[in-house]
From TrEMBL:
GO terms for cellular component: plasma membrane; proton-transporting ATP synthase complex; proton-transporting two-sector ATPase complex, proton-transporting domain. The chain crosses the membrane at residues 20-41, 62-85. This is ATP synthase subunit c. SUPFAM superfamilies: F1F0 ATP synthase subunit C (SSF81333). The keyword Transmembrane helix applies. It is a multi-pass membrane protein. Residues 20-83 form the V-ATPase proteolipid subunit C-like domain. GO terms for molecular function: lipid binding; proton-transporting ATP synthase activity, rotational mechanism. The record marks 70 as: Reversibly protonated during proton transport. It comes from the Bacteria. The gene is atpE. Keywords: ATP synthesis, Cell membrane, CF(0), Hydrogen ion transport, Ion transport, Lipid-binding, Membrane, Transmembrane, Transmembrane helix, Transport. It is found in: Cell membrane.
Length: 86
C-alpha cells in the first residue's frame, strides 16, 4: 500500500467527523461575530453618551468595524460550508 492510498482511506473514514466539525465551526463563527458586533455597539453607545458632539465620527467608525467583522464571519461560514459540501 502506498501512503496516498492510506491517506485516502483515512479521509473517507473521517468524513462524517469533518462534516460535524464544519457545522460546529460555522456555528462558532456566527456566535463570535454576534458577540463582536454587540461589543462594538455597546462601546459606541457609551462613547456617544460621554461625547455627544462626536456621534457622527463614532457612528461611522462603528459601521466600518461591524462591516469588517461581518465580512470575516461570512468568509468563515463559507469556508465551513465548502468543507461540508466538498
Amino acid at each position: 500500500m502506498t501512503v496516498l492510498s492510506v491517506l485516502m482511506q483515512v479521509a473517507t473514514d473521517l468524513a462524517p467527523l469533518a462534516k460535524m466539525a464544519a457545522a460546529f465551526g460555522a456555528g462558532i463563527a456566527a456566535i463570535a461575530a454576534a458577540f463582536g458586533i454587540g461589543n462594538i455597539g455597546r462601546a459606541a453607545l457609551e462613547s456617544i453618551a460621554r461625547q455627544p458632539e462626536a456621534s457622527g465620527d463614532i457612528r461611522s467608525n462603528m459601521i466600518v468595524s461591524a462591516a469588517l467583522i461581518e465580512g470575516v464571519a461570512f468568509f468563515a461560514i463559507v469556508v465551513c460550508l465548502l468543507i461540508l459540501f466538498i
